[in-house]
Amino acid sequence: MKQELADKIRKKLNGGKGYDHLSPSSLNIPLAKFFINYLMFTQEERRQQLASYKANYGNACNNPVQRFLCKYIFESGKKLKPKKQSLKENIVREFDIIDKIPPRDERDAECRKEMKQYIEPTAQQIIKAVKEIFGDQELMAERYVYDTPKGLILDILGRIDYESEDKIMELKTKPINFRKTNNGLSAYKQKLPDEPDEAHLKQLAFYWHCTKKTPYLVYANHEEYKIFKPELPQLEYYYQQMINKAFIIQNLLEITEADINKITQLVEPPDFKSFYYSDLTPEQLEKTREAWRM
């Protein structure tokens, strides 16, 4: 791709404010949602999207554990030593942050309130998993790693959940499910998977590719945890699948010159029944329908 066009594309991303990287998580969403998030809207507008209680559950469980166990945490790329506090104190700190985020709706507000009783038990399961993998090794969390595959005009940037000198760990929590009954909300445990999710393997494959450290994938709920240690050929495959997705996105940006009106003629319309689109604000939903002429 010519440099002039590459620069034009970067400038048009992020709602016209410019963007210079992809991430493992952005490469795991449907193509339509990628262009909605990273071409149509700015970072500020993305932050207005209405995340459900399940999206906050992972942070509420994992962030306190990171601050409790890790010697170093990277915040905005800076290496910091977290303040020494108990797990409970770190959970309270996280609740204070989450409580400032507007809930999606009345039901989501109720679910968020009820989920809090399951946070510490889930955090305790995460601690057990981390201890089983790393033992007494010195840990750090949220370190940025990046990759620039040949021919790709955007770097791929990601943050590692847990890392020691020779190991890395990607964590996925399984939030409690709630159902409305005549007596209020009833809670139902999410079963841990028997096999890793492909999307999660792609994320882990990226971190492994960048570090070449022994990789682990952990799932946890409030009652148990599971540890998976994928084979390296499997990770090589999933890393390549992720890179292929990055080039599909780049090719679409190149042939349309990052014009959303042209992209919507090439990418199938979003399925608004999918949870991927449930976080769009009413204004963003209206703009998305207009873009795809729905």
List the helices and strands and how they pair.
Layout: H1 3-12, E1 21-22, H2 31-40, H3 43-47, H4 53-69, E2 72-75, E3 78-80, H5 87-98, H6 106-115, H7 119-134, E4 140-141, E5 143-147, E6 155-160, E7 162-163, E8 167-173, E9 177-181, E10 184-188, H8 198-211, E11 214-220, E12 225-228, H9 232-256, H10 260-263, H11 282-291
Parallel strand pairs: 1-6, 2-4, 8-11
Antiparallel strand pairs: 2-3, 5-6, 7-8, 9-10, 11-12
Helix pairs in contact: 4-5, 4-6, 4-7, 8-9
Describe the structure.
It is a single chain. The protein has 294 residues and is of the alpha/beta class. The chain is 45% helix and 18% strand. The chain has helices spanning 3-12, 31-40, 43-47, 53-69, 87-98, 106-115, 119-134, 198-211, 232-256, 260-263, 282-291; strands spanning 21-22, 72-75, 78-80, 140-141, 143-147, 155-160, 162-163, 167-173, 177-181, 184-188, 214-220, 225-228. Strands 7-8-11-12 form a four-stranded mixed beta sheet, with helices on both faces. Helix 4 packs across helix 7 (119-134) and helix 8 (198-211) packs across helix 9 (232-256). The radius of gyration is 20 Å and the shape is globular. It starts with a helix and ends with a helix. The mean pLDDT is 95.
Features of the shown structure:
single chain; 294 residues; alpha/beta; four-stranded mixed beta sheet; three-stranded mixed beta sheet; 11 helices; 12 strands
Mean pLDDT: 95
**Main sheet: which strands, in order across?**
7-8-11-12
User: Element order, helices and strands?
Assistant: HEHHHEEHHHEEEEEEEHEEHHH
Main sheet: strands, sense, barrel: 4 strands, mixed
Provide the helix percentage.
40-55%
- Specify Rg, calculated over alpha carbons: 20 Å
Low-confidence stretches: none
Q: What is the chains' assembly state?
A: single chain
Taken from the alpha-carbon principal axes, the silhouette is globular
User: Count the helices. How many?
Assistant: 11
| Total number of beta strands | 12
Which structural class do the helices and strands define?
A: alpha/beta
What is the first-to-last residue Cα distance? Answer: 32 Å
Strand content: 15-25%
